[in-house]
Specification:
By secondary structure, this protein is mainly alpha-helical. 49% of the residues lie in helices and 6% in strands. The protein has one domain. A hairpin with an 8-residue loop joins β2 and β3. α2 runs antiparallel to α4, α3 runs parallel beside α4 and α3 packs antiparallel against α5. The radius of gyration is 21 Å and the shape is globular.
Length: 247
């Protein structure tokens, strides 16, 4: 690179949240006796990194999961917009009273360092939920939303977020690619048993998520450059430490 050429681009991304309800969904909660785990944004991004890398290496199941995540994001964004629109309409009913949606005196702010665009879209969805909680609590405070309705709307939004964050957890990294599926055999059968039968248009590569990564093939082996480990029966339902490395 010449001295007169610009250097590489660098930037920072920050997530700012106003509410405790949204803050809790950043890291989630570990499972314990009688309490199932709650997958947070960080767990979602960690698992999504594994799927993203596998999709680059021609794993059709990783492509399928990215499609599911994309569709879930689109659906949940639409539902949260609908709830926020209803809350805005309630607040507009105050006529001569101008209502500013409440914000925190000490908002939570954290940097985001993700390796793919779907993790950032998930963070944006969480920020939308945070704004919905602020609007719901404000509407209840000024008397245009009943307490039970306020609680229900907050729980409904949380349910949407948690559903998205749990979606990548059902993917299994098995060191498999389209060539393996085409050959059949035990490897392909094991993948189908664990993750289901692939739609034809996904297996062919005709249908991929709009933001999916470009595929790359390495003659030296599949994914030997990203320190991931295949799922085994003993690890079913949990991620390996390597899969949880920061992106």
């Amino acid at each position: 690179m010449g001295a007169d050429e610009p250097g590489p681009l660098r930037g920072q991304v920050w997530l700012t949240l106003q509410t405790v309800q949204a803050r809790r969904l950043v890291r989630g909660r570990s499972g314990s006796a009688g309490k199932p785990p709650i997958f947070g944004l960080t767990t979602f991004a960690d698992r999504l990194r594994v799927i993203w890398q596998a999709a680059r290496d021609d794993d059709p199941y990783a492509d399928w999961w990215l499609i599911k995540i994309h569709e879930a994001l689109e659906s949940k964004e639409k539902r949260l917009r609908s709830i926020r629109q209803m809350l805005d309409e309630r607040l507009a009913q105050m006529d001569a009273i101008e209502v500013a949606v409440a914000t925190s005196e000490r908002p939570f702010r954290t940097p985001l360092r993700f390796a793919n665009p779907y993790a950032y879209r998930a963070a944006h969805l969480l920020a939308n939920y945070d704004a919905q909680v602020c609007a719901a609590l404000t509407a209840h405070h000024v008397g245009v939303l009943a307490h039970r309705t306020c609680v229900d709307l907050i729980h409904q939004g949380s349910h949407e977020i948690r559903g998205l964050f749990s979606l990548p957890q059902s993917y299994r990294f098995l060191r498999i690619d389209r060539a393996d599926i085409g050959k059949g055999g035990p490897k392909a059968c094991d993948a189908e048993r664990r993750m289901g039968s692939l739609p034809d248009e996904v297996l062919s590569g005709e249908n991929r998520a709009p933001l999916a990564p470009q595929r790359r093939r390495r003659p030296s082996g599949f994914s030997d450059h990203i320190r991931l480990h295949p799922a085994s029966p003993s690890s079913e339902g949990r991620s390996s430490p390597a899969e949880n490395d920061d992106a």
